[in-house]
TrEMBL record:
Chain ranges passing through the membrane: none
Domain of life assignment: Bacteria
GO molecular function, one term: sigma factor activity
Sequence ranges assigned to domain RNA polymerase sigma factor 70 region 4 type in this UniProt record: 130-181
Gene3D superfamilies: 1.10.1740.10, Winged helix-like DNA-binding domain superfamily/Winged helix DNA-binding domain (1.10.10.10)
Residue runs in coiled coils: none
Species the sequence originates in: Altererythrobacter xiamenensis
One example of a Gene Ontology biological process annotation: DNA-templated transcription initiation
The RNA polymerase sigma-70 region domain, residue ranges: 31-95
Similarity comment text for this entry: Belongs to the sigma-70 factor family. ECF subfamily.
Protein name: RNA polymerase sigma-70 factor, ECF subfamily
Keywords for the protein's UniProt record, in alphabetical order: Sigma factor, Transcription, Transcription regulation
Length: 189
């Protein structure tokens, strides 16, 4: 899953760069990748589906004109676009172009987003990749025993019985494997 999130982020970054050069196909790609999240932000602020749709249209029209302002070194594409959508929706509230049912302007400021920040997702993906790399460096007995114990939730006794080895041997395999994992992970820091 981390790989697909990383791939999606890279595709979006690439599309934003192409969009800045006037690539119309890139706008479609950005729209498909972000429309649901950005619509949700607009709808949360405006409280009206039609208003949110109008605000979202403004977002993509303005994005087409201002895509060259996006700086990938300062923000992830989705963070920048989310801020852009929030600002468009708040602008609609301020100008009074919104029908009844919208939220008060003060309620629009804290738009919650449960999605981890891009840098946190990248750190998690790197850690996950490192752990999987280190697990692959173990010998097969240790690797399989650790995976069964920690990923499947089996007890050492269950694993020992399943593999037909004494419990003490199983505990030794796992303890040595965990020490090798620790050493590998610390070497990668």
């Amino acid at each position: 899953m981390a790989d697909s999130a990383t791939d999606a982020r890279e595709r979006l970054k690439s599309a934003m760069a192409r969009l800045a050069t006037g690539d119309k196909a890139a706008l479609e790609q950005v729209y498909e990748a972000t429309r649901l999240k950005l619509f949700g932000i607009c709808y949360r602020i405006l409280g009206d589906r039609k208003e949110a749709e109008d605000a979202l249209q403004d977002v993509y029209l303005n994005l087409w004109q201002r895509a060259d302002r996006y700086d990938p070194d300062r923000a992830s594409p989705i963070s920048w676009l989310a801020t852009f959508a929030r600002n468009r929706a708040v602008d609609r509230l301020r100008t009074g172009k919104v029908r009844a049912g919208s939220v008060d302007i003060d309620e629009a400021a804290p738009v919650p987003d449960a999605t981890p920040l891009a840098d946190a997702q990248m750190i998690d993906a790197e850690r996950s990749a490192r752990i999987h790399h280190c697990i692959e460096t173990l010998d097969a007995k240790q690797r399989d025993s650790i995976r069964t114990a920690f990923f499947e939730g089996r007890t050492y006794a269950e694993i020992a019985a399943k593999t037909d080895v004494p419990l003490g041997t199983m505990k030794s395999w796992i303890r040595r494997g965990l020490q090798k994992l620790k050493d590998c992970l610390e070497a990668g820091e």
